[in-house]
Input
Amino acid sequence: MALEAVHNAAPSADTRTNDSLRPVRIWLYALAGFVLVILMVGGITRLTESGLSITSWKPVSGVVPPLNEEQWQAEFEAYQQIPQYSVVNSWMTLEDFKFIFFWEWLHRLLGRLLGVFFIVPFTVFLVQKRLPRHLAMPLFGLFILGGFQGLLGWWMVSSGLSELTSVSQYRLAAHLTAAALLFLALTYVARSLTPGAVPQLVGKTQVGQAWILLVLFVVQIAAGAFVAGLDAGMGYNTWPLMDGALIPSGMAVMDPFWRNLFENALTVQFIHRTIAYGITAYILMLVWWQSRNGGFTGVFGWLPRLAILVGLQVVLGIATLLMSVPISLAVGHQALAFLLAGSTVAYIADMRRISKVWQTV
Output
């Protein structure tokens, strides 16, 4: 797996006692934080339905927004040619358009800046010989992943320019999941480069349990993208009942059945809720199991922290639903999902690092 390759590329803690990789770690954590900021702006862009306001992709010249009334009018006229304007937003004035344009422009600008913030320090670190080849190559792979994320973004936007009035939920899920993988990879590499370790026994079972938790978080992020893509959170705003029942009817009305899993708003929201219940039960099981098998010293201190974050995420998710998806709560809910996955990957990195050191003691 990609993260496994990155882990193997990281030098062991005891080979760099002077911690010359500290600037690299800070840089990687900063990049991960910047990805999180882009994610939050992307969430606002989606919730304000701003994502289709820029109908062309100009990787270089698109950095500069319209600077005069003529340029603004040209952008507005291009937007007026797509279905979202004629079907949903025909009431818009130029001033209304400027609002949605800003969020999409900012989202794209931050994506471009991410590439700059990666390649410039990366080049400096190479010149300084701070990055050995077996670390530099995987990091450059992350740069490629970031560029691919930009292509996915345009692929997603293009799905709403001809027939749909919003972007495809399938492409939105691909875009968000790729962002999650980039965020997790950056966090994992940074954490793996932490110097020093306490010899502590870590079993394969515990590592495997953490990987399962991480997979559940990534799957839930993807499921959340389908909820967002279908605006499924705007309906069925009750809890714990959904449409008046714990298991609502109408979840299999589409044919073939698999379409319900991705295109039926009722089914998609139910799946998102069910995965949340499963994650909650699973993290509580891990906490209980570890409390009976050594407690929460050292690396296992991550578990109660993760349990607390999961609890907060559940409360935030329910509040977001009951209040019909206000932007502040929805963006916070999405960001906390990334932080949960990031904390889990840091937990895995710590276990792998400690496990490696223990084997050499």
